[in-house]
């Protein structure tokens, strides 16, 4: 039997209850504001989707205006208009419902501002939504309207795919067409078997701040479904596609020049083109802003590796080259274009003549010895009137080597970069010369000498300064004893990457069985995906051992293997204990000391 509480204890209990209530109210306010952010994000999504709908309808209309004599295009055009008419009433009903609920909630509170979102004045009210949806029977009407729209859309797709709505499963129709359609809103059945209006589960008991994003989500599903069907219709007449009617094999070698000791490698594939739509190819320098906008930058090499295609809409005059275009991308008068480019002082892009397959033929004089590169743009007319522009440069193979008798072949045998502190194997050869007549040297910080890599004779380069570039230059001794200096390729110099923390060269952190953890003997720094001979050795570290329900224990250690003191705590590991390894310092073969991030283990 408990003793009566003293007045002081009763007051403490009451204050605790009041505090909990205040905290709950604050959490509720934060949640209400968060709903506003969610609603704003979905409204922005709907705005973008409406633009997609307009663009899709515009594309279909352009195709119809251009070729209305084709029955297929006429049918698609009429169907697209029907698709939007089916959803018009549902979209308008949802819009009016949200406007009415906003008005009933007092409108937006100009004094509220949560991350740029204004809240409804009566955002906490839970009565208005049920008043409109339940008492005034708007809920069943909107449900019926949404289901009706879905059924009408599904009937269109079923007819185009050769199914019969009502006989064939809806899932089969959607799977065949590839369309993601909004789900049907079913009748809800309560635990006792009675029907429950769908809007009860949707908004009953929810504050207005939560009701609004719930209704917006219905708009999201409706608009996304409309975009899906319009995109499906566009695919039926190939509006966005450049159709092909010719194919041929194409061989693109990785290199047009190899030495006797190297392998020849080439991509062999099928090339496709449209014999009625010839592309127009221009040679010229690509503007910097187009390289930055459409370039794909490799985060490792920091070089442009490819270019995305860009779309030039009908009527636009976007020109991606620094050289002028005197006639236009639609012009077939190549001779006039190039004649003007040759006779005027202004600089114009070179338009290439195309063969029957639409291949532009580019011919230029070799000039001096060395690597030559070029770039330009290919324009291709689409069926919807827009033009696709493909930018290309040396990353697409737009380069060639002008060789002399002493043309060097120099390549890194392990990777296309050189690393500080390791042996970097380099293959060196010059066609027409004996190996002993070719002597490489390193242009930059470092040295190069003879060595072996994977049982093959080669040269080993050692570099010292990361972030710089080095060149492997060659000195060639001619038969008459004369020496010729030849510049070789350039390599980037990088620091060896940091290793990964492991226990026993296997466990990198996270959950680990107690039995596995207790047998660990030390910390092993591991280099992953690195092809060179390089080691890191553990210098020092700190371990925090937190037994379940007890205070933390901090132990410092050094060396690759755990000493007796460390092993004592390692062997104490039990389920729900935690171990943290921090301030782990390792030293590499290059004498650099690296600090590894904290690694945690949870014993299970």
Largest sheet: 6 strands, mixed
What structural class do you assign from the helix and strand content? alpha+beta
The end-to-end span amounts to 42 Å
Spatial shape: flat
Mean pLDDT score: 75
Overall number of domains? 4
Characterization of the model:
There is one protein chain. By secondary structure, this protein is an alpha+beta fold. The protein folds into four domains: 19-237, no CATH class; 246-401, no CATH class; 404-494, Cadherins (Immunoglobulin-like), CATH 2.60.40.60; 510-603, no CATH class. The chain has eleven helices and 28 strands. Strands 23, 24, 25, 26, 27 and 28 form a six-stranded mixed sheet that branches. It has a five-stranded antiparallel sheet with strand order 8-12-11-5-9. Strands 15, 17, 20, 21 and 22 form a five-stranded mixed sheet that branches. A hairpin with a 5-residue loop joins strand 11 (376-381) and strand 12. Helix 1 (7-66) packs antiparallel against helix 2 (71-104). The radius of gyration is 36 Å and the shape is flat.
Quick structural overview:
The chain is α+β, with helices and mostly antiparallel strands and 604 residues long. It has four domains: 19-237, no CATH class; 246-401, no CATH class; 404-494, Immunoglobulin-like; 510-603, no CATH class.
Characteristic terms for this protein:
604 residues, 25% strand, 6-stranded mixed β-sheet, 4 domains, alpha+beta, 11 helices, flat, Immunoglobulin-like
Topology:
Blueprint: H1 7-66, H2 71-104, H3 128-135, H4 138-161, H5 170-177, E1 188-189, E2 195-196, H6 198-203, H7 208-237, E3 246-253, E4 266-273, E5 280-283, H8 288-294, E6 295-297, E7 304-307, E8 309-312, H9 334-343, E9 350-351, E10 370-373, E11 376-381, E12 387-392, E13 399-402, E14 409-412, E15 417-419, E16 424-429, E17 438-443, E18 446-453, E19 456-463, E20 469-477, E21 483-486, E22 490-494, E23 510-512, H10 514-518, E24 536-546, E25 553-558, H11 564-570, E26 578-588, E27 593-596, E28 599-603
Parallel strand pairs: 15-22, 23-28
Antiparallel strand pairs: 1-2, 3-4, 5-9, 5-11, 6-7, 8-12, 10-13, 11-12, 14-16, 16-19, 17-20, 18-19, 20-21, 20-22, 24-25, 24-26, 26-27, 26-28
Helix pairs in contact: 1-2, 1-7, 2-4, 2-7, 4-5
């Amino acid at each position: 039997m408990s003793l009566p509480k003293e007045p002081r204890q009763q007051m403490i209990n009451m204050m605790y209850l009041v505090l909990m209530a205040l905290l709950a109210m604050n959490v509720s306010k934060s949640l209400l504001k968060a709903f506003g952010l969610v609603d704003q994000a979905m409204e922005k999504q709907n705005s973008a989707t409406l633009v997609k709908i307009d663009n899709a309808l515009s594309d279909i209309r352009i195709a119809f205006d251009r070729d209305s004599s084709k029955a297929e295009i006429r049918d698609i055009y009429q169907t697209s208009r029907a698709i939007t008419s089916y959803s018009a009433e549902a979209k308008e009903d949802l819009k009016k419902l949200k406007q009415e609920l906003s008005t009933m909630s007092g409108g937006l509170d100009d004094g509220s501002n949560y991350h740029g979102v204004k809240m409804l004045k009566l955002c906490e009210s839970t009565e208005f939504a049920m008043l409109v949806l339940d008492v005034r029977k708007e809920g069943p009407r909107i449900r019926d309207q949404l289901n009706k729209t879905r059924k009408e859309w599904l009937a269109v797709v079923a007819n185009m795919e050769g199914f019969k709505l009502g006989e064939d499963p809806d899932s089969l129709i959607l799977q065949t067409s590839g369309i993601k359609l909004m789900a049907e809103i079913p009748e809800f059945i309560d635990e006792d078997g009675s029907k429950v209006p769908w809007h009860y589960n949707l908004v009953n008991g929810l504050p207005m701040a939560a009701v609004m994003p719930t209704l917006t989500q219905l708009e999201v599903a409706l608009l996304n479904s409309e975009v899906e069907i319009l995109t499906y219709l566009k695919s039926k007449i190939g509006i966005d596609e450049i159709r092909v009617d010719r194919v041929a094999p194409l061989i693109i070698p990785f290199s047009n020049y190899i030495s006797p000791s190297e392998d020849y490698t080439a991509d062999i594939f099928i090339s496709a083109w449209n014999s009625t739509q010839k592309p127009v190819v221009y040679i010229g320098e690509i503007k910097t802003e187009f390289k930055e906008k459409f370039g794909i930058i490799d985060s490792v090499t920091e070089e442009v590796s490819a270019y995305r295609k860009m779309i030039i809409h009908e009527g636009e005059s976007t020109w991606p080259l620094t050289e002028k275009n005197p006639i236009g991308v639609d012009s077939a008068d190549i001779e006039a274009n190039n004649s003007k480019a040759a006779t005027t002082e202004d600089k114009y892009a070179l338009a290439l003549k195309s063969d029957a397959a639409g291949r532009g033929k580019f011919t230029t004089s070799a000039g001096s010895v060395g690597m030559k590169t070029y770039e330009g743009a290919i324009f291709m007319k689409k069926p919807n009137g827009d033009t696709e522009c493909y930018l290309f440069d040396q990353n697409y193979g737009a380069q060639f080597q002008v060789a002399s008798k002493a043309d060097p072949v120099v390549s890194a045998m392990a990777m296309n970069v050189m690393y500080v502190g390791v042996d970097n194997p380099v293959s060196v050869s010059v066609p027409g010369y004996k190996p002993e007549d070719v002597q490489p040297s390193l242009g930059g910080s470092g040295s190069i000498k003879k060595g072996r890599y994977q049982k093959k004779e080669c040269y080993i380069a050692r570099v010292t300064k990361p972030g710089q570039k080095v060149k492997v230059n060659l000195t060639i001794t001619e038969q008459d004893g004369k020496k010729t200096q030849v510049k070789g390729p350039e390599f980037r110099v990088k620091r060896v990457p940091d290793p990964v923390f492991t226990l026993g060269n296997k466990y990198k952190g996270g959950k680990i069985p107690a039995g596995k953890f207790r047998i660990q003997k030390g910390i092993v720094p591991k280099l992953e995906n690195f092809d060179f001979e390089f080691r890191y050795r553990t210098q020092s570290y700190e371990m925090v051992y937190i037994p379940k329900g007890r205070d933390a224990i901090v132990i410092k250690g050094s060396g690759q293997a755990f000493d007796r003191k460390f092993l004592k705590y390692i062997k104490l590991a039990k389920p729900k204990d935690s171990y943290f390894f921090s301030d782990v310092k390792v030293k590499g073969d290059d004498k650099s000391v690296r600090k590894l991030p904290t690694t945690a283990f949870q014993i299970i």
